[in-house]
Specification:
The protein has 74 helices and no strands.
């Protein structure tokens, strides 16, 4: 504490210090705060005196100033005496004598200020002696001891013998008389005084008798209380308390019981303040320590009971224990000890002395007092009285009479509450002391709850002032505390009172769910531990819950449900916690538990919702299984339970939905599983990848068709539950936030959440997030009204740019809005103008579309770079993203299917004899109504689709601007439209495929259908690899639908001519943008289209094999999913199917132990593939291939148009291997490593050479070869057929350029090629020679190509340098193969088109095939090694010279001459017959088709005859048997009756199976640009190459 007296004052005491000190004391004396002033003055005086003691100030100076100060306060002398007392103690301890002297001098100087008596009281006897106030300190001490003894220990003698009994008799008569007249206590008091004086009565005994009489006459409070009060003036104040104490003492032996009348008298005397509680309390037993110990003992006992209940006890022990417990309980109940404190407390409560009652309760452990029923009941009664007026005013329900409670008679009882504010001040405090023991009075419980309800009503109505609002807030928080501390614990102790639970819910439902859940949390986790009784109740509830859950089955749901209901009324949190823990362990409990919860109250359902959320949020539980690749089963079980329980019962959803939203905000998507289940069960919207095509088709219809045919389970009665879900979302504004959070979290799963997790799990979470978004968006679209939807979903640019929603998701959310908007505008326009013509309607529809979509077209521009809109228009982009399958096609077959089902149902109802007639009638009416609805819906959709198609017809010309190239346009279309959407959902996958077909059918300018399909099928590796599991499934569906269209066109010339013949999408020359269509010669003809389709099949095979051989989990899983989906349409060609089959078989073997999920997928696909095998066809039936000349040049090895043909180096290698001896295989093994590298390079180069508009070089090459051979066999009929393939632009070029080519060059090349081929190297030198020769031939080849290219402009040269090099390389290899055809042994590899075989042993052929297979695998060097080893063994056994005799040179020259003649003939023929009608061509086509197979069978027979080999007819299977070949022949014969028939059967078979959908990688820009340049250049190199290859033939 800072010094009040500065040192300067002391130094300059006379000058100014003295006056300063006087002023300070005056100021302190005038201080209004009495305590502070007192302390400060004490300090100031002490400091002054201390300065004197230290010698800083003279004692006379100090005494003078103290004389001035002493008048400032009355108690100043007393204060000064205190200061002297302290200094006396301090100086007596000091050794410095001078300080002690200073002190005594100061006191002597101040004797005139403080009286002697005060100093004698406070100073030490020795000090008093030294001051001369007493003579001897010793005598003084003795005298004080004597006085104390006399005062406190000596009893006054009272002569009891002088008392006369008559006086007591008269006293009793006096007190016991009838007091109803005008007898007052004063009158009686005078009489009592007289009696005491007359009969010498002891006043204390008189008082005792007065109290005794008062006990017996409790109704005369008004008489006895004043009597005792006036009598006490004659006694010492403590006397009354002592007498009462003796009375209580009398009853304190073990057998005594204190009468309630005594408690009552004591209580009334306390209430009138005649005695002090502290004085009386010490006379009562038991002591506070004993009470504390008893309380602790109760807690321990409660815990023991809990432990016993949780322990597993064998049945024999159980019975013994129960008996012991019963004995103990009986002992306890025999004699509860008499607790006088509690008795007094009860009496105080009964008379309404709340103040003293509270003081007693405060001295005991919490709720100890009220745990005794009489006290709880007394306190409840007091509360009843206090709340009565307020309850009567606001709490009584309508129509209830109620029994009014009269107020307490005495005036000192608590004031009755008239308002909520008074309720808070008085009653809430009482309730807090009651705690859980309000359960003793259910009526009071109900009253308090009703008052709470009334308050909440007032609290929620606005319009009060700011001050009132603050008061209300305080009241509200007090109400929440009362609920937490009193109402809920009391409910736990009530014995299953459902009405109380419902009554409480009436108040609870007015609280926001956040407050409710907080209360439930406290109740569950805190309250039960606060009181021994509640601890026991908790244990008993769990025990009972275990008993019920053990016996719960589907069969006894009702009785078990009733028991659960009964238990849940009072302790729902504990019960549900246990039930949920069981559900998490055993998911088969879900259904019975859900069914058994029908007997719960509303409050219990709400508690259940909280318990579910708490279980979900349990931080101790892992959300992943130990393998880290799947979501934990407990979470799946809880989610499933959630969905079921929220659907069946009216539980509030807000909390659960908010929990999911919060988890998403925190970047956790595991809990989306819950949302998924809830939406699925409540709204009946399923998201599954396992949909059949029938279901998918149904999903493209109206709402009724979706409900009937689109889902697995027949989902009925979801109207109410989906309405509840919708309301919860809208009331709490969660609809859009959840959508946006899910859309954002989709990528968050990969980049934030998925860091440490297993790739498989990340994929699962991504799929779950995406599926839930699709499902949730679907729910909003079908359930929100137009206004609600438009009000909540912002425009597309805001969604993407501000909320960072991915484009696919943003359009998905906006799409229903556009549809709603357009339909409402359309209806408005229809109403405005009544014109009913179809054209008017269409016109209005188009107008409404323009009105709605115009702002969208503007908005989408900001989504992409300006460059994008050079190729596709914003209108096209918006149209693509805003339409759905519902707008494009009517699923007539689905409608028919459902209508037929209903007809069958109605027939079954008619036939059912057992069904009662009224039920029959109802069911039939239901079916009829449904049928009508479906038909009406179909009609409505049909009209809608027609309107949409009209709109698209008008729009289509502005869709594709193609300012750069058509190739670029297709790239943009695939990249921004098709690929993102085809993996969004199964229906979107189907939509994308349909949309491509639709754009084609609309003859959209600048859209190359051919390019589009080519890009989709060409390289699917990247797209497949980057998909999740579900995306792969959707991508598969997309490819399946695309393949279906292609297969339909491929199946029949008539269909092709009709749907593609004259369409701009099938132009093969890409002209300047302005020019569109026209020249028939630019169209891709049917036969070439079939080659292209074969190429696509080959490409798919190549990609599939690559993915299967990577060993990567994702690649293998995804490609198997895709392959399973496209199974109806692929593989169609036998050898491609076999290649796939082998790879899949390999996967089955490898993954059986390692990755069982891949094994399962592979096995499933393998089985389905085998079942499709009978429907596969040889390659020559898939697209026309020539039958071979007798044992001569086989058809060149080719892999679809422009496909990566077998590289030259590989071919040479195989031949060498066949011819080499056993000793050389070791050398070759080493060599093969090098070869593999070459193969890799060529494989890498091939995609660049591949599709130049799907109509590429080797296409025409093959056709040409085929023509040559056919001409030699048949003349005139063949010429007609040849007209079609000749129509391609490449053929034209060949026709013209073929004449000019000098023969020398051809001969040179042919010879060189043959030399290389003929040498079968026996040593390393020879091998080197072969290599050199190959090099030179390559160089020559490239030179010729260069000369042709030089004619181009220099700029073009620069751009095309690299691609041309790659193309040349690939072409050169092809030409070499053709040139060497004479000596080459064809190898029927899995990736080759089938070719006839010469005589080779079976095993070696298989080895060769394996070898060739390797060229599509990135890791095939090892395979080649193995194959070489196998070959070594086999060649040792079967060494045969495999080379076939070469053609003689003369024959070759003849062939060349024929070639020249034919090309000239063809060009003339074409000019004549160009104008012929299409029908002619069809007829010719069918004729030629019939003849070719017959011709080929003849030749085969001849060939077999001449070579003497019966095995090697043209077959695809690696292990062909004669039986198979016979079948082939029969097939060929049967085909001569007409190909169309076969095609239709094939198509039927294909339609039987189902399919699914997923992602496609974007082609590099460079590739597409190069391809474009190639096209624009007119394919000069290809033409040149064709010429050369033709002449080699």
């Amino acid at each position: 504490m800072a010094a009040l007296l500065p040192g300067e004052w002391i130094k300059n005491w006379e000058k100014g210090g003295k006056s300063e000190f006087v002023q300070l004391c005056r100021a302190l004396s005038e201080n209004k705060n009495h305590d502070v002033g007192f302390r400060d003055i004490q300090q100031a005086l002490y400091e002054l005196a201390y300065h004197v003691v230290r010698g800083n100030l003279k004692h006379d100076q100090a005494s003078n100033v103290l004389g001035d100060v002493i008048e400032f306060r009355e108690d100043m002398p007393s204060i000064l005496a205190d200061v002297f007392c302290i200094l006396d103690i301090e100086t007596s301890c000091l050794e410095e004598k001078n300080k002690r002297d200073h002190f005594t001098q100061l006191v002597l100087a101040c004797l005139y200020l403080v009286s002697d008596t005060v100093l004698k009281e406070r100073l030490d006897p020795e000090t008093l002696e030294s001051l001369g106030l007493i003579k001897q300190s010793q005598q003084f001490n003795q005298k004080s001891v004597k006085i104390k003894t006399k005062l406190f220990y000596k009893q006054q003698k009272f002569n009891l013998l002088r008392e006369e009994n008559e006086g007591y008799a008269k006293l009793i008569a006096e007190l016991g008389q009838d007091l109803s007249g005008n007898i007052t206590s004063d009158l009686i008091l005078e009489n009592i005084k007289s009696l005491i004086g007359c009969f010498n009565l002891d006043p204390n005994r008189v008082l005792d008798i007065i109290l005794e009489v008062y006990e017996c006459r409790p109704e005369y409070d008004d008489f006895f209380v004043p009597l005792i009060e006036s009598y006490m003036y004659m006694c010492e104040p403590q006397t009354l308390c002592h007498i009462l104490g003796f009375k209580f003492k009398f009853y304190q032996d073990p057998s005594g019981e204190t009468p309630s009348s005594l408690y009552r008298v004591a209580a009334i005397l306390l209430q009138h303040n005649l005695i002090e509680l502290e004085d009386l309390y010490v006379h009562l037993l038991p002591g506070d320590n004993a009470i504390m110990e008893e309380h602790k003992r109760e807690i321990v006992e409660a815990k023991q009971i809990v432990r016993k209940l949780t322990m597993v006890v064998l049945s024999s022990e159980k019975t013994e224990e129960k008996e012991k417990e019963k004995e103990k309980e009986e002992e306890k109940t025999e004699k509860p000890p008499d607790n006088q404190k509690l008795g007094l407390l009860e009496a105080l409560l009964k008379i309404g002395d709340w103040h003293h009652a509270q003081s007693i309760m405060d001295q005991m452990p919490p709720f100890y007092a009220t745990s005794h029923k009489p006290i709880a009941v007394a306190l409840c009664q007091l509360v009843h009285v206090t709340i009565e007026p307020l309850y009567r005013r606001v709490g009584v329900p309508k129509g209830a009479k109620g029994s009014p409670i009269s107020s307490l008679p005495n005036q000192r009882a608590p004031k009755q509450a008239e308002s909520f504010e008074e309720l808070r001040k008085e009653v809430f405090n009482m309730l807090c002391y009651l705690g859980p023991h309000l359960s003793h009075d259910p009526i009071l419980f109900a009253k308090v709850v009703r008052l709470g309800k009334a308050f909440m009503k007032e609290f929620q109505s606005d319009g009060s002032k700011q001050e009132d609002k603050e008061k209300m807030e305080t009241l509200f928080s007090c109400l929440l505390s009362i609920t937490d501390q009193v109402l809920l614990p009391s409910l736990s102790l009530m014995d299953c009172n459902a009405c109380m639970s419902e009554e409480l819910w009436g108040m609870f439902k007015t609280f926001p769910y956040q407050y409710r859940y907080r209360l439930y949390g406290q109740w569950k986790n805190e309250t039960y531990n606060s009181h021994p009784l509640l601890v026991k109740v908790k244990a008993q509830t769990i025990d009972r819950a275990k008993y019920i859950m053990k016996r719960l089955t589907k069969e006894n749901v009702k009785p078990s449900g009733r028991q659960i209901g009964k238990l849940s009324h009072s302790n729902p949190t504990i019960l549900f916690d246990y039930i949920l823990s069981q559900i998490q362990k055993y998911d088969n409990l879900i259904t019975p538990v859900v069914d058994s919860l029908k007997y719960l109250t509303s409050l219990n359902y709400d508690v259940l919702a909280y318990c579910i959320i708490e279980a979900l949020a349990n931080p101790e539980k892992e959300r992943m299984k130990h393998d880290d690749t799947t979501i934990s089963s407990w979470l799946q079980s809880l989610a499933s339970f959630c969905g079921a329980v929220f659907r069946k019962y009216p539980i509030e959803l807000a909390g659960l939905l908010q929990y999911v939203a919060n988890q998403l905000k925190a970047g956790k998507s595991f809990d989306l599983l819950i949302l998924k289940e809830v939406v699925q069960k409540m709204a009946g919207i399923e998201i599954t990848e396992e949909m059949t095509m029938e279901q998918l088709e149904a999903m493209t219809g109206g709402e009724q068709l979706k409900a009937e045919g689109g889902y697995f389970g027949q989902i009925r009665n979801t109207k109410k539950s989906s309405q509840r879900l919708k309301d919860a979302l809208l009331d709490h504004d969660l609809a859009l936030p959840l959508c946006l959070l899910m859309a954002q979290q989709r990528n968050g799963v990969i980049f934030q959440e998925g860091g440490e997790k297993h790739l498989k799990l990340v994929g699962k979470l991504y799929d779950q997030c995406h599926d839930t978004l699709v499902q949730f968006g679907g729910f909003l679209a079908s359930n929100l009204s137009t206004e609600d939807y438009i009000k909540r979903v912002p425009s597309i640019d805001v969604l993407c740019n501000e909320f960072h929603t991915p484009h696919d998701a943003a359009f998905f959310l906006s799409r229903p809005m556009y549809a709603h908007h357009i339909s409402s505008k359309y209806d408005e326009l229809k109403k405005a103008e009544k014109g009913n013509k179809q054209q008017h309607k269409v016109h209005k529809y188009i107008t409404s579309c323009e009105l709605v979509m115009a702002p969208v077209h503007e908005a989408v521009i900001s989504l992409h770079l300006p460059k994008v809109w050079d190729d596709i228009s914003p209108q096209f982009y918006a149209t693509f993203w805003s339409l759905t399958m519902y707008d494009l096609a009517v699923p007539h077959s689905s409608y028919d299917r459902e209508v037929n089902k209903l007809k069958v149902q109605m027939k079954a109802i008619d036939d059912n004899q057992e069904m009662p007639p009224n039920k029959k009638k109802k069911e039939k009416e239901r079916c009829t109504a449904l049928q009508d609805k479906l038909l009406e819906e179909e009609k409505k959709q049909l009209e809608h689709v027609q309107r949409v198609l009209q709109r698209l017809k008008l729009e289509k010309d502005n869709w594709l601007l193609a300012k750069s190239t058509k190739n670029e346009t297709i790239t943009k279309f695939l990249q921004l439209c098709i690929f993102p959407r085809c993996i969004f959902s199964a229906i979107d996958a189907v939509y994308c495929a349909h949309f491509v077909e639709l754009v084609h059918q609309q003859k959209t300018p600048n859209f190359s259908t051919l390019l589009c399909y080519d890009r989709v099928f060409s390289d699917i590796i990247y797209t497949v690899a980057s998909c999740t599991e579900n995306e792969a499934s959707r991508y598969g569906r997309f490819l399946c639908c695309m393949l279906e269209t292609v297969t339909r066109w491929h199946s029949d010339r008539v269909i092709y001519e009709k749907e593609c013949g004259n369409y701009p999408g099938f132009l093969t020359i890409l002209r300047a943008t302005g020019f569109d269509g026209g020249n028939k010669a630019d169209q891709l003809d049917y036969e070439n289209f079939r080659h292209v389709v074969h190429k696509w099949h080959y490409k798919l095979t190549k990609a599939s094999v690559h993915c299967l051989e990577t060993g990567e989990y994702t690649h293998i899983r995804n490609i198997l999913i895709v392959l399973t989906k496209i199974l109806p349409w692929y593989p169609k060609v036998l050898n491609l199917g076999q290649a796939l089959e082998r790879r899949v078989h390999k996967i089955c073997q490898e993954e059986k132990e390692k990755r069982p999920d891949l094994y399962a997928l592979a096995m499933g696909y393998s089985g389905q593939l085998k079942s499709r095998k009978p429907f596969m066809i040889p390659e020559n039936e898939f697209h026309h291939k020539d039958p071979p000349a007798r044992n001569a040049v086989p058809a060149p090895v080719q892999n679809g148009p422009g496909g990566a043909g077998m590289p030259t180096s590989l071919t040479i290698n195989t031949v060498r291997l066949e011819e080499g001896t056993t000793e050389e295989t070791d050398k070759l093994k080493e060599k093969s490593q090098g070869v593999v590298k070459v193969i890799n390079k060529t494989v890498n180069a091939t995609p660049k050479v591949t599709a130049s508009n799907g109509n590429s070089a080797s296409n025409s090459k093959i056709i040409k070869e085929k023509d040559d051979k056919e001409k030699s066999g048949k003349e005139k009929d063949k010429e007609k057929k040849d007209k079609t393939p000749a129509a391609t632009p490449e053929m034209k070029a060949l026709g013209k350029d073929g004449k000019d080519k000098p023969k020398e060059e051809r001969a040179n090349k042919e010879e060189k090629a043959r030399e290389i081929k003929e040498k079968t190297p026996k040593s390393d030198k020879e091998k080197e020679k072969v290599k050199k020769e190959e090099k030179t031939s390559k160089e020559e080849k490239s030179k010729t190509v260069v000369t042709i290219v030089e004619s181009k402009s220099t700029a073009e040269k620069e751009r095309e340098k690299e691609p041309s090099r790659e193309r040349d390389l690939a072409k050169e290899m092809k030409s070499k193969e053709n040139a060497k055809g004479g000596e080459k042994v064809p190898v029927a590899g899995s990736l080759k088109s089938p070719v006839p075989r010469s005589e080779t042993s079976e095993s070696e052929r298989e080895q060769k095939r394996r070898k060739v297979d390797t060229h599509s695998s990135p890791s095939h060097s090892s395979t080649v090694k193995d194959n070489l080893n196998e070959l070594k063994d086999s060649s040792a056994k079967h060494y045969i010279n495999h080379t076939t005799p070469t053609l003689s040179k003369s024959k070759e020259r003849e062939v060349e001459k024929k070639d020249m003649d034919k090309s000239r003939e063809r060009s003339r023929e074409r000019e004549k017959k160009d104008e012929k009608d299409r029908k002619d061509r069809k007829r010719d086509h069918s004729n030629s088709d019939r003849e070719v197979p017959q011709d080929s069978t003849k030749r085969r027979k001849e060939e077999n005859g001449t070579t003497g080999s019966s095995k090697h007819s043209k077959s695809e299977s690696p292990s062909d048997s004669p039986r198979l070949n016979e079948k082939e022949k029969e097939k060929n014969k049967s085909k001569s009756s007409g190909k169309e028939k076969g095609d239709s059967i094939k198509a039927e078979k294909m339609e039987k199976s189902s399919s699914g959908s997923k992602k496609e990688s974007r082609h590099d820009k460079e590739k597409t640009e190069k391809k474009d340049k190639r096209d624009s250049a007119g394919g000069k190199e290809e033409k040149k190459h064709h010429k050369s290859s033709d002449k080699h033939r």
